[in-house]
Amino acid sequence: MANRRLPEWLTVKAPKRGAYEEMAGYLNSMGLHTVCQSARCPNIGECFAKKTATFLILGDVCTRSCAFCGVSHGLPLAVDSEEPRRVAEAAARMGLAYIVVTSVTRDDLPDGGASQFAETIRELKSAISGAKVEVLIPDFGGDDEALKTVVDAGPFVLNHNVETVPRLYSTVRPDAIYERSLHLLETAGGGGASIFTKSGLMLGLGESRDEVLEVLRDLRGVGCDMVTIGQYLQPSRTNLPVVEYIHPDQFDEFRAIGEEMGFHRVMSGPFVRSSYEAGEFSPKQP
Asked: CATH homologous superfamily for 18-281?
């Protein structure tokens, strides 16, 4: 049974008055979604106050129903061909130079939505001079051609989360395959393309310290450049409960170990999420 009382280090600051409403209203007026809202991210107040957000493309309904995720699942709507242009327009108006784009999983589409990612990257680069685009992508069902479509569009960082340790996949993300995610990261980082790869882990779902270290070794083994490690927080009562609240000292240890393993960047802490402070976290252009 999860301990439902949050420890003191998981206190969330109240969002700046008006900042959330202003950003939410603007994005809604553009017909755009953010993972910040859909996944009920605890950092939304901080990020919206900074006028930054992670764009969620391909709608806000996922074809998978991972037990940890707060995003709605079911039958998605048709792909909106104008969405990439609106993302670029919104990012330009917001003054963003580093833009993070993610999506729901779209197993209903032949390419899993890869072409929409690619078009969004191209639109952003066209609209914003010198734009750096980070994409947080699903596994595309293991389709290497779909992955190539995204890679060929030239993202600065390609992120794909392994989310948890292999032992917990059947419970946490039953439609995913750990080895498939590792293959995606290895493939994306190969071929001579100057793309940084990134992945992320949630802690507090019942994993052991040794299992976390094994995942970090696996990620380095496939050439993953960056990793984020954060605390899982139950987004709703229908999601998996928290098994353990990890102390900040443990996150610090994982960061130090990850750096010793040779990761280019390691961000590890209770409130760390895949796209949290992504621009500051990203490496310098080679």
From this structure: Aldolase class I (3.20.20.70)
